[in-house]
Structures
1.
Amino acid sequence: MKERFGNINSRKWTRIILVSVFFLILGCSLAGEKVAKDNGIGWDGEIYLNTIQHFTELILTHGYDRYAIQRIMPWGLVNIVFQICHIEATPHNALIAGGVLNILALALAIFYFFRISSLKQWKQSTEVIAFASLFYSYALLKIPGYYILLSDTFGFLWGIMMLYYFLCKKRWALIFLAVLGSVNWPVALLCGLVLAFFPTNEMRIHSILSREDSWIYNVILCGLSLSPFLFQIAVYIGTKNHVFIPWGFDGGPVSMWVFVLSIICVCGYLYYMIRPFKFSISQIWSECNSIKTWINITCAVCCFIGVNILLHCLTNGNDGALNNRGLVVCVYTSCLADPLCFIESFFVYFGPVVLLTILLWQKSAQNVANKGMGYFFVIALSVFFSIRPEARVSIMYLPFIALPIMEYIDTYELKRWVPRIYMLLCIILSHCWLPINTDGMEFALSWENFEHYNSFPAQRYFMFTGHWQSHEMYYICMAITVIVGIILYIGIRKKWFIIREDNR
């Protein structure tokens, strides 16, 4: 045990250092610049400020659309606390409350992270890499302090809590988080119910399939991989003017060669991500085709429909920013703005863990399959959303994506310098050291149109958020992504980072 996990005091001090560095940087971010839009309120922040000021009135008078009600829980609680404590809900007080909420949410996420690490019995080196991968990023070091009234930290918290209770096989905790998550983060309800009710028995990945299973596997693989192209064909056939929709982040059409190259790249990416899961559909069907499984699935469906009916009754009937159809269109069109722009935007937003995931994906596939159908469904959903360049919408999936990668890394004995360098690399690439606001930023963000967002100074913010990143900034950030990716790829192939494999 001592050889496997190292000195307990050493692990304790390592955790203290990891957490201290995180909160030191986060504290500087919270005390520093704020989004130069409505005095630090921001775009979505207008909804949350309105909730902090008028939640009890709005919820009783159907004052929320579908977009807003799926994110109001933290801000509704602030409204209730403010009323109980007789605190005036001014924008200044709302920002202070938002900062406190972000600190509490991230502290709780860290608590659950270490519970997961202890549960999985990770090596100290793996724990450092996993912590840096999840917490030392632009998403959690910069955004919670710069754009305070945003729900992303709670989406991340919900993801890591659901992951922990899934690993502990606590079904009722997952159901509770799923239902409560319906007013906290859009996909929390679906993912929580799937994890709670779907089978958890291992799904075996086969090297060779029977003829029937091979045919089904190839149809699914080709269909899903070509889905962006098939979507464009459907649009071409279904529209009167018979045009493809090669739109860029700036709201205008991209050149045809960029469009063609981008659609080839996204189809290739989906093929790469789906191909390792070579399942025997007949075997899975025979194992899951039981009364217990169908009762569980029926319960999940009924709970999902019931909660959605309740949400519909509380809303004003409007879809808000994006309905389901609009979401699909957004995913399948935004990924074509530039070749592999979604990988670049995820790397910029979440850091090196994105490249590690891609490079180690095939080797970690069995770790996904081992956790059952529910976990695989969540991973499949995350792959679909990963082609949308607005990385922040996928923040809840990050712990689920990272877990099988870290399980694979934990099978190796790493050199002592690797976790330290990786931790430093994550901090550097988080851009926490880069000021965003500059002269004219407030004026630039007040225009709210694509033309101004795609030029400086507005690009100092939008170049890190996927959507509305200019093509020039895409070239620069993609070059950095490629360089870091090549170094990691060569290092993994040449075994620069490992001493030996741990044959546990």
2.
Amino acid sequence: MRFEGHIWKDGKYWLVEIPVLDAMTQGRSRNEAFEMAADLVETLVDVEGFTVQVYPLPQDRFELASNNCRLMVALMLKRQRQRHGLSLAQVARKLKASSRNSYARYEQGGVMPTVEKLAELLSAVSDTDLVIRQSEAN
């Protein structure tokens, strides 16, 4: 799974945005900005051994992949929930779950949702369409 991002130059800095994670960072060069993007996601996940790779694309775009899709999905769900100001209990109610723990296990990375379940979870935590790409380079 890969998440798409955007990079552009603003004055003397290169800015990097990862919309699905509601995250931004910057660097003095394009390469440093990519390094900062990887470091940002690794820091947000904060699990030993978790690494992120950046794949530059044409037209000021790039993709992020990691060595652990489950943790990337967990981070995405958490960031989207926080972005939309929802509590775990509110998301659980939207999913018609009996407890917030049924949703929290996905957000904590304990369980990897199926594609269908991921769509349901994203619908519960956000009101926007998010671009997620399946890739063999996980």
